[in-house]
């Protein structure tokens, strides 16, 4: 792999997908997230709602709570978050309040997505900070993981 491949959105989304697969194996909705700063992964997380019995234990929220200890601040302007699914309003709001530099996600969520699909929390005109978002990165791979998870869930 060359340097370009190691710092591409696809590369980091593959790492987020690996986190999503951990969630999948643990019976969680397969959302995985990765934080990247200066081309390096600084934190990883996956959904743990069922495991922790906590509705806020989304991959993105867990990731955001790790960052202050790594960065030494609550402002994450130079951090890009990669996540397998478009964030919900809670997660998107937390990204705005944390001053995330950029959001990259896999699948769009037309029902609950808050980075432009259902609503646009990340770039709402009243926000003091806006989070630029790019969707559809490795969308097919992310969608395949989600479809597999929900197929098994419905069969139960």
Spans with pLDDT under 50 lasting ≥5 residues? none
The strand count comes to 5
Largest sheet: 5 strands, mixed
Helix % is 40-55%
Radius of gyration: 15 Å
Class from secondary-structure proportions? alpha/beta
Number of helices: 6
Q: How far apart, in Å, are the first and last alpha carbons?
A: 41 Å
Query: How are the strands ordered across the major sheet?
Result: 2-1-3-4-5
Give the overall shape, derived from the CA principal axes: globular
Report the sheet-strand fraction. 15-25%
Order of helices and strands: HHEEHHEHEEH
| Residue-averaged pLDDT | 94
Short description:
The chain is α/β, with parallel strands linked by helices. The chain has helices spanning 3-6, 9-25, 49-52, 59-71, 89-97, 139-155, and strands spanning 32-37, 40-46, 79-85, 102-107, 133-134. It is built from six helices and five strands, in the order ααββααβαββα.
Explained architecture:
- The protein is an alpha/beta fold and 156 residues long.
- It has six helices and five strands, in the order H-H-E-E-H-H-E-H-E-E-H.
- The chain has helices spanning 3-6, 9-25, 49-52, 59-71, 89-97, 139-155, and strands at 32-37, 40-46, 79-85, 102-107, 133-134.
- Strands 2-1-3-4-5 form a five-stranded mixed sheet.
- Helix 2 runs parallel beside helix 6.
- The protein is globular, with a radius of gyration of 15 Å.
- The termini are far apart.
